[in-house]
Design brief:
363 residues; alpha/beta; 5-stranded mixed beta sheet; 3-stranded antiparallel beta sheet; 12 strands; binds pyridoxal-5'-phosphate
């Protein structure tokens, strides 16, 4: 926005002039790049996913000409089956970022502020500003854990990432139930973008709590970040609000390729579980190797780790890695500016990171 003049900005809606948009992790085009900065999966999706995409064009000459199913019913059914809920409990959107946007609009535009931790997914403040949602930010404790007692005050809604990002720390279901029970008149959203890598999902609580919305994505654990498919699970009266927002915004968010590919992914559960196990095993190896090099690493239940080194500045480490073709995420923000968020790669990729640090940077 920097080279737009104030005079040119007179065409903009006044509130858009004030926006501070989210800055996505970069997708640079460097040769021999090792990209450990945006928590993508290092493995491809199931081969059945690729076949399903190809079949969309082969099976129907009208695949591109006709609008897709506005309700993406087939996809909702596949998700319902895999999550052991009813189709009425499922909402789908163009990535969980879009699902979250609809969640903010549907539930959080209230008199009272919503509550979320000081260190969490940085899209929440962006959506709050965009939709005019009031916020009250609650600090994590010194170990970067959520203080459940803080979530027992008057509020207009609550959103918690579990496992949290970028800290990677998981919150137990009993703590989540405590928050749900303390807030019977607020919607509590659990953003489970990383849940498949080692946390317990709150989907099993949906039947019991009429104020719970669980949000998940196919971007990380299902290797489908390029597809843009996310979903929410909740009781039907909450799903109805999301549908009302969605149908006031975009009736056809899911295209035919996204629907077909995501359905194939949910149907190949064995492949999905095997990939998750591989990432978890590689994470444990990487944690052990970096610990030997002196890094302090928070306990991770995600496909990334949050690491600091007592003797090296995190910003300088990130810059040194970048010079050697390895990109990790560095947040120059209070409390976390001595940490690196490192996505788990394949064992071979992680080894390149460890070797580069050991031989070239820390030595
Ligand atoms: C990656 C991520 C998302 C967004 O996922 P998409 O489905 O790719 O939009 C949402 N929440 C958190 C915490 C994430 O890390």
């Amino acid at each position: 926005m920097s080279n737009i003049t104030t005079e040119q900005m007179r065409f903009w809606s006044p509130e858009v002039r004030e926006l501070e948009p989210y800055v996505p992790g970069e997708q640079p085009k460097i040769q021999n790049l090792l990209k450990l900065n945006t928590n993508e999966n290092p493995y491809p999706p199931s081969s059945k996913v690729v076949e399903a995409v190809q079949q969309v064009l082969e099976n129907s000459a009208d695949a591109l000409r006709l609008y897709p199913d506005p309700d993406a019913s087939e996809l909702k059914q596949a998700i319902a089956k895999q999550q052991h809920v009813a189709v009425e409990n499922v909402f789908v959107g163009n990535g969980s970022d879009e699902v979250l946007a609809h969640i903010f609009k549907a539930f959080f535009v209230q008199e009272l502020p919503i509550l979320y931790p000081d260190i969490t997914y940085s899209f929440y403040p962006v959506y709050s500003q965009f939709f005019g949602v009031k916020t009250k930010v609650l600090p994590l404790n010194d170990d970067f854990e959520i203080v459940v007692a803080d979530y027992k005050q008057a509020n207009g809604g609550i959103i918690i990432t579990n496992p949290n990002a970028p800290t990677s720390i998981a919150l137990g279901l009993s703590a989540i139930e405590e928050v749900l029970q303390a807030n019977p008149n607020s919607v509590v959203v659990i953003d489970e973008a990383y849940v498949d890598f080692g946390a317990e999902s709150a989907v099993k609580l949906v039947e019991k709590y009429d104020n719970l919305v669980v949000c998940q994505t196919t971007s990380k654990s299902r290797s489908l970040a390029g597809l843009r498919v996310g979903f929410a699970i909740a009781q039907p009266h909450l799903i109805a609000a999301l549908a009302a927002v969605k149908n006031s915004f975009n009736s056809y968010p899911m295209d035919r390729f996204a629907i077909a590919a995501a359905v194939a992914s949910f149907e190949d559960q064995a492949y999905f579980e095997a990939q998750c196990h591989k990432v978890i095993a590689s994470r444990e190896t990487l944690v052990a190797d970096l610990t030997v090099l002196g890094f302090k690493i928070l306990p991770s239940s995600a496909n990334f780790i949050f690491a600091s080194h007592p003797e090296h500045d995190a910003g300088e480490l990130a810059a040194a890695l970048r010079e050697r073709g390895i990109i990790v995420r560095y947040f120059n923000k209070p409390r976390i500016n001595q940490y690196l968020r490192i996505t788990i790669g394949t064992d071979q990729q992680n080894q390149r990171l460890v070797d580069t640090l050991k031989q070239d940077i820390l030595a």
